[in-house]
Amino acid sequence: MSEPVADRLRADVAVIGSGPGGSVTATLCAEAGYSTLLVEEGPDLPLDAMAHFSGEEILHKYRHAGVTMAFGNPSITYVEGRCVGGGSEVNRGLYHRTPPYVLEQWAGSHHVDALTPEALAPHFEACEATARIAALPGTPPPLSQRLGEGAMRLGWDAIAAHRLYDYETGRKQSMSATFVPRFRQAGGRVIADMRAQRIRRINGRWEVTARHRSTGSVTIVADALFVACGAVQTPALLRRSGIRHNIGDSLRFHPMLKAVALFDTPVNRLGDPDPVHQIKMFEPRFGIGCSISSPAMLALALAANPPMRARIAADAARMGLYYVQNGTGHGRVRTLPGCHDPVVSVCHEQAELDQLYDGLQHLIRALFAAGAQAVQPCMPGFAMLRSVEDMATLPECLPRKSAMLTSVHVFASCPMGEDRRLSATDSWGRIHDADGLRIADASLMCGPTIANPQGSVMAIAHRNALHAIARRFA
Amino acid sequence: MLPDFTATVGALAATVAEREQGAGGSPQAARDFVLASFAAMPGYLRPPLRAATLFFDAWPLPRRGRFFHALSPAERRAQMEAWEAGPAHMLMRFYVSLALVSLWHE
Ligand SMILES: Cc1cc2nc3c(=O)[nH]c(=O)nc-3n(C[C@H](O)[C@H](O)[C@H](O)COP(=O)(O)OP(=O)(O)OC[C@H]3O[C@@H](n4cnc5c(N)ncnc54)[C@H](O)[C@@H]3O)c2cc1C
User: Fold this and answer.
1) Cα of A137 from ligand 1 centre, angstroms
2) How does pLDDT run across A379-401, given as a tens digit for each residue?
3) Of A105, A375, A448, B33, which is the most exposed, with the fewest CB atoms less than 10 Å away?
């Protein structure tokens, strides 16, 4: 049980949510000399409190133990972190800066000021100086290399992605290992196990009504407030608090389809570093990469494919799990009266689903080119494929009923920009007409980041926090 | 006797465990993992899922005179496989997926 806290707290700045967006923002505010509270609904657990991608980690560090769904045809099962550090604690830390064409698209579609690669570069550099990124030293594990080899044989480009990872110490560069200690060193205070329920403006200050696990009801009064609860919970909190203009209307994902390849030789050895190869040349239509391929993750992916699953016991070392993802799915976040948890719905454009399915076929081709003896698309009703020729038996388009879409990336539910018809905040995360209330997380993106999003979330939070501090949060 | 949610989850986890050749986890740990995941799920999903689970526990009563959780392992397996191939496949996939994570984690 966490330490009780006072039932009334006062700070210059309160930041709700301690994921990459909230941690970066809170650190800069504390270092600028403001008394700053960083409020987190989940527990404060050491990075290595439990094995990465274990059932225990899922129960303790994931929201709803990983059972969260956007309802649609097809639905998307998505996961989020819920602990000090948010998603950065449970993710793989694959790292990219926002692709320049994505920034250009956002600046154009939502009229975001000063969002160029050059303007963002110092913010990326500043974040990368604390949460360091590195290339895998030495050769990537065989599971990863196989994807690279398959791509090469087909004349495609594959890259080995950098990660937010310190390969010398073998430690992930999560928020609890990087920005949160820096925040504490600057005098900031983290309060874990406390959920913000509502916010309101009263007497020129922000009042947050929260519930702490030990203390019960707590009121926080702050001069400046940042909401950084992640792309689903931020719109939920704002809508519960009566703030609704373009809030929660445009949630986006990176839905994935997966396939398991069975190779002739071992590719998946216990203790191998995480795979890092990605095929990015087809983006934004789709991107391809490698997934964690522990027996538990293989079994989960193959839940609807018993024949391939039956081989895990004997052949897990020869099996690799791979994904293809794109930006299909346009979601909405809504709160229901008397209901604690928001309801998320999603609809798809056929063209985007077609591109994702085309991506799955590219992935299967790459795996056979890499020497796979069999490839199993991870969907009910899909047979195990023994050769590229067997691909002729695949359905013509993705069957919506059986598509098992999963996503670990959510964003864009409260986009920034000067175009008020589309955006929830201005170009700097300030909610339109809300007395300086700011958003500081993945909600602000104007669409899918296409690349892995954590770098973008941190850099944009860094840019916006400096902007807010320079204006004394006006 | 009434349908029993915990016993049904335990019976489903045990059936998955029995089928899953080579997985090192115990059926009890799988049951506990499924129950803990259920407890953490969004509030609006729990009541319908619990109701559906109890309904399936009672399903074999008219024909076999026993709840699903009280059937023999062989009968449970046959019943579960029938559900997996029919309209209950989504509910079954939900339970099977969670049980698999726990069973294969060991
Ligand atoms: C399994 C997984 C793998 C991933 N892999 C990668 C990867 O390899 N590379 C990459 O770039 N990205 C990856 N991501 C995505 C990345 O982690 C997210 O984009 C990033 O964490 C988003 O940051 P955020 O600040 O927007 O929100 P989050 O990280 O979601 O943090 C929000 C925090 O706010 C807290 N909160 C929510 N509501 C409240 C409330 N009412 N009161 C108090 N606190 C609240 C939450 O508990 C959470 O801790 C992955 C994510 C997951 C889940």
Assistant:
1) 27
2) 999 999 999 999 999 999 999 98
3) A105
